[in-house]
Amino acid sequence: MAIQKIQDCNWEEILNIQEEAYQQIGSEELNILKNKQEYSPSTCLVSVSKTNEVQGYLLAHPWLGKEPPKLFQALPRIYEYDCLYLHDMAVSSRFRGLGVGTNLISHLFSIAKHRQMKRIALVAVQGSSSFWANNGFEVVTGIIVDASYGNGAVLMEIVLP
């Protein structure tokens, strides 16, 4: 498995993985996903197999403040930021249990450290907070996330060394 930046040829597989993964909250449109990549191409990644099949993907971008961006909307232009926001990560059911998600997260941590980012934030959806906690993320209290993230969604972050 290899981690690389998202290429145009990856989007169809990304959309299929997203549709499979987010049945409770729904899928975002392609133009919204591409907006994240255009905003920060070096932090929008795919894990590909030896046969170049997309196993999973991760979309992250710079962000300012604790309140997360809304789902289903393009990002506003920001010129200052204090963290990386991990917008979305999903792994194809065919490749779960192989460490794809962990490898994508590890790669993002390396990028964040190289950029001297102090933290990575995300919203855990569909009961995924235990997965994120196992990867070092902690729940941020006092912030109510937008209803578009679905019931039980929680803001989480990891402070980087």
From TrEMBL:
Residues 1-161 form the N-acetyltransferase domain. It comes from the Bacteria. InterPro entries: Acyl_CoA_acyltransferase, GNAT_dom. It holds the Pfam family Acetyltransf_1. GO terms for molecular function: acyltransferase activity, transferring groups other than amino-acyl groups. This is N-acetyltransferase. It comes from Agaribacter marinus.
